[in-house]
Amino acid sequence: LGVVAGLLLATRWPAAARRPGPVGDLDRLLKADPHTCLVDAEGRRLNGPRGAPDADWLAAWGEDADRLRQALLQAVLGGQSHLRAFRPAPDGGSTHWDIHLLRIEGGPGREARLLVRMRDLQAEVDARADAAQARSQRDVLVDAIADAYIELDAEGRVSRANPAAERLFERPAAGMLGRSLWEAIPGMESTALAAFLRSLDGRGGSDRTEVFHPPARRWLAVTAHAVPQGSLLFLADISARVEALEELRHKTARLELVQAVGRFGGWDYLPDEGALQLDDNALWLVGADAGLPRSSHRQALMGALQPEARLRLIDALLASLNAR
User: Fold this and answer.
1) 3 state SS for 167-180
2) Among 307, 149, 303, which Cα is nearest to 231's?
3) What average pLDDT does the segment 235-255 reach?
4) What is the pLDDT of residue 17?
5) Whole-number Å distance between alpha carbons of 309 and 96
6) What CA–CA distance (Å, rounded) separates 89 from 309?
């Protein structure tokens, strides 16, 4: 029996279902794996104590018992069968199983028996459910943010675009998916974003830049994160802020110009010393340093004036001496 079962397992059992080590000893296989058993074509368990609670193997499967009965019949007729089934557990334990059924030929006058091998899938099912819930929560958050969000795969193709991205670039997500970023958003390849993303791919991590998108005449702030699957991009329209900063810069420049043009300087004439003393504004206007010695102020002022203006200055000095 062991030799026959070993040959059948080696030649007909799927490789993923075979256990490592010798498979010829059926008794050892049944003892080593609590999820392996022998049943007849009616689903009655053949190994283990008779009258045990699980002697009727099919009875424990609830609504999936009919599917398993059909699988047993298929294995009897075709040699093997494979399915996944749900088994309710009163204690709340594992309920999802992967099941392989293999027919073992009986001797003369004996019915065919079925070797049942089961694998507990509950941990995998729970992990997939948790991952699906996490993706669902992430999708809700991504769809709710005000910034445009675009995912790129390892080939640089758009794999996701949120509603904010659709509004920002006035393109439906379906029209962007599967395309390169430059195809999905025409005109973007002419910006500094291409070099920025290449640099980020080379060094990894996260970075931020600002680019001008000519077709839309918009300034965009781009925050990019390099991930193993590609890149995550967050894009925000900062045109209003850039325009406000540019206007502020122009206003500041105009103000500085007005201040420079309207900057008045003063001077005092010291008749006892026969010297002119210029204040800091006057020194600035004539291009002299604020620390220029007072004895050089007259020369600095005269050097900055046209000849006729120098004559008027001398007249003004004489008038001040005469209290005029």
Assistant:
1) HHHCCCHHHHCCCE
2) 149
3) 90
4) 41
5) 103
6) 109
CB crowding 92-101: b at 16 or more within 10 Å, else e? eeeebbbbbb
Tokens of 319: 């008038």
Cβ(225)–Cβ(138) under 8 Å?
no
Going by C-alpha positions, the residue among 317, 296, 27, 169 that lies closest to residue 161 is 169
Rounded to whole angstroms, how far apart are CA atoms 104 and 24?
Answer: 12
CA–CA distance, 222 with 200 (Å, rounded to integer):
12
Q: What would the DSSP string read from start to end of 274-299?
A: TEEEE-HHHHHHTT--TT--GGGHHH
Please, are residues 5 and 103 in contact by the beta-carbon 8 Å criterion? no
Q: How far is Cα 35 from Cα 15, in angstroms, rounded to an integer?
A: 18
Environment class of 215 (CB within 10 Å of its CB; exposed 0-12, middle 13-18, buried 19+): exposed
Helix pair 307-321, 297-304: axis angle to 10 deg:
130
Q: Do 60 and 86 touch, CB atoms closer than 8 A?
A: no
Confidence of residue 254 (pLDDT cuts 50, 70, 90): confident
Amino acid identity, position 62? G
